[in-house]
Amino acid sequence: MSSANRVTQLTRSDLDTLMDWAEDEGWNPGLDDANAFWAADPSGFWGIKQEGGLIAGISAVKYGGDYGFIGFYICHPDQRGKGLALQVWREALTTVEGRLIGLDSVPEQVSTYRKSGFEPAHRNLRYTGLSVVSVPQDPRLSPIGTGIFPSIAEYDQAFVPTPRPAFLKAWHQPMNRQRFGFCVVEDGSITGCGTIRACREGYKIGPLFAETAETADLLFRALAGSVRGQMVTLDLPEPNTEAEALAERYELSPVFETERMYHGEAPDLPLSKIFGITTFELG
After folding, report:
1. pLDDT tens-place values along the chain, 283 residues long
2. Do the beta carbons of residue 129 and residue 231 sit within 8 Å?
3. Between the CA of residue 28 and those of 70, 102, 184, what are the distances in Å?
4. Any bridge partners for residue 175, and if so which?
5. Parallel/antiparallel/unpaired status of strands 7-9 and 53-63
């Protein structure tokens, strides 16, 4: 590998470039997702630069001591076919070696990732549509704010392979009407939580975690109803048929799918309680 094509750690401004590339690829990232992604692991972004700037990139974000997630695997269209993407891929794998590693693959690349030791766990489905719901008036609903965040962080741990406090704190940071969330509190305990954020186009809901389908429905209406008339997107694990029913009940349609894959034994996550995945890019 020539020094001109050496894989190096990326800067915060490079991540903004990756976000723009993600928009070009049709991934529709959130307007301020980069802040939370960087907070998760500032050392987890890699790429190849030339004098004109970034030409290929990838993320290999480390959570805790035993989990990693790969995303943002993009090569600039003008630089494809030169083996650059493979170089950043190999470097990313070395940085999370020895951990359980997750990623979301488009269907046509599943066989490629299998060659690197990744195995499919389940499909994820993206549903999109116009919000036609209204915000419910329910005393169990509470806005997610600083005071309740420790309880949200504790609740979140059941839905991910390892705790992610730095990411979660940034992810739940309210930004006017660009990012906000609700939780459901019953008998002093959280029984569900969800966040909605403004994206390059419309809004995305994620995560959407709930103990029951009724609680997930309540949270969805609170979130989507807050942006009634706007396009909303919900990414959900296909094994959760009640999540699919929720999306279809409110006139969202499937538009995209990924395959969740793991290098190592797939974690035993409560998919029946995951009604919305946080983000395909960072798991």
Report:
1. 444 688 999 999 999 999 999 998 888 999 999 999 999 999 999 999 988 789 999 999 999 999 999 999 998 888 888 888 899 999 999 999 999 999 999 999 999 999 999 999 999 999 999 999 999 999 999 999 878 999 999 999 999 999 999 999 999 887 667 899 999 999 999 999 999 999 999 999 999 999 999 999 999 999 999 999 999 999 999 999 999 999 999 999 999 999 999 999 999 999 999 999 999 999 8
2. yes
3. 18, 21, 28
4. 179
5. unpaired
Rounded to whole angstroms, how far apart are CA atoms 148 and 154?
10
Residue type, 125: L
Separation of alpha carbons 168 and 166, rounded Å: 5
Backbone angles phi, psi at 222, to 5 degrees: -65, -40
Run of H or E residues at 113: helix 110-114
CA–CA separation, 236 and 238 (whole Å): 6
Among 104, 131, 137, CA closest to 257:
104
Name the residue type at position 202.
Answer: G
C-alpha span between 154 and 220 (Å, rounded)? 21
**β-strand pairing of 231-237 with 203-210:** parallel
**Rounded Cα gap, residues 61 and 9, in angstroms:** 12
Decide: 269 and 124 in contact? Cβ < 8 Å: no
Rounded Cα distance between 207 and 186, Å, is 19
Q: What is the residue type of 10?
A: L
> How far is residue 252 from each of residues 44, 122, 189, 248, measured CA to CA in Å?
34, 21, 30, 5
Q: Is the pTM of this model over 0.85?
A: yes
The dihedrals phi and psi of 13, each to the nearest 5 degrees, come to: -70, -30
